[in-house]
Design brief:
The structure is a single chain. By secondary structure, the protein is mostly helical. The chain folds into three domains: about 110 residues, Four Helix Bundle (Hemerythrin (Met), subunit A), CATH 1.20.120.1810; about 50 residues; about 80 residues, Orthogonal Bundle (Arc Repressor Mutant, subunit A). Helix content is about 65%, strand content about 0%. The chain has 13 helices and no strands. The radius of gyration is 36 Å and the shape is elongated.
């Protein structure tokens, strides 16, 4: 027997299940709650499987198998039975509707795309209402731009316009595997992944650069200890800042001529070069 035929038989059996009177429904719910009577649970849920099928049918346009939607709806029905309080004078179908719909929606959000979405209440509202509202707005004779439509949808759902734009882009195109071939030619085995280029350095290069930078910084600060206070100030303000100070500004702050500042700087750099070369010949970088 095919899966389709099995599903049809299941649906027919569900539709033939007898309806429950209010008192009978209450008694079954009490037996399940108090005594964990499996027979009572089976009768209660079997009588409401037509409700599961009806709700699942509302989501058949999302591209998932109807049998899966019904199965997830049944999970929600069982969850509703486990939480139902029969003494609140509420019909079980009214209470179970929310749990059935929530279970089906969660299943759709988990399986509709390989990229997880709809993690917040606003995103869920967008996912399940955007296409309906977009189609409704498109039917109206209007020359309004696309952005105006996004604004109207955002206002109707109480979400940000940028969230509407993002969800619209997600719903507009299907998932594409990076391992899928670019062409159907047997001579060309190229995949989408082959054309993804990462210009970032390799992890080992990044680590090596970090180690070298730390080592050079340590050598530099060690070499700076050979300078006196004025030499150190001139080197720091002239060479170790993004926007180095001018000779004239340093001369003014130190009370000397800019020529004297240049001479002190040259002497300081010579001392630094000697100190660095002593530690590592490759560190003679100052000119």
């Amino acid at each position: 027997m095919s899966d389709q035929e099995s599903r049809r038989r299941f649906v027919r059996a569900a539709m033939k299940a007898p309806y429950l009177e209010r008192q009978e429904e209450h008694d079954l719910a009490v037996k399940w709650r108090d005594d964990k009577d499996q027979t009572a649970l089976h009768k209660l849920t079997s009588a409401h499987m037509r409700l599961v099928i009806a709700i699942a049918g509302r989501f058949r346009n999302f591209g998932l198998p109807m049998s899966d939607l019904i199965q997830e709806g049944h999970v929600g029905l069982l969850e509703a039975a486990a939480r139902f309080e029969p003494d609140r004078q509420v019909r079980f179908s009214t209470y179970a509707t929310w749990w059935i719909r929530a279970s089906i929606q969660d299943h759709i959000l988990r399986n509709w795309s390989i990229v997880r979405g709809g993690t917040s209440s606003s995103q869920k509202a967008l996912f399940f209402n955007l296409r309906r509202l977009r189609a409704k707005l498109a039917q109206r004779p209007s020359d309004k731009p696309r952005q105006t439509m996004f604004n109207e949808i955002a206002g109707a759902l109480g979400v940000a316009t940028k969230d509407v734009e993002l969800m619209d882009s997600r719903l507009s195109g299907p998932d594409a595997s990076l391992n899928a071939p670019i062409t159907e030619s047997e001579n060309d085995a190229s995949t989408r992944q082959d054309f993804l280029v990462d210009n970032a350095p390799q992890p080992d290069e990044t680590v090596q650069e970090q180690i070298d930078t730390e080592r050079r910084t340590s050598w530099l600060y060690s070499a700076l200890s050979v300078l006196n206070e004025r030499e150190l100030r001139i080197v720091k303000e002239r060479r170790l800042q993004e926007n180095g100070a001018t000779l004239e500004s340093l001369g003014t702050s130190l009370g000397i001529s800019k020529e004297r500042v240049r001479q002190i700087e040259a002497r300081a750099l010579s001392k630094l070069r000697d100190a660095l070369v002593m530690d590592d010949p490759e560190m003679a970088v100052f000119n």
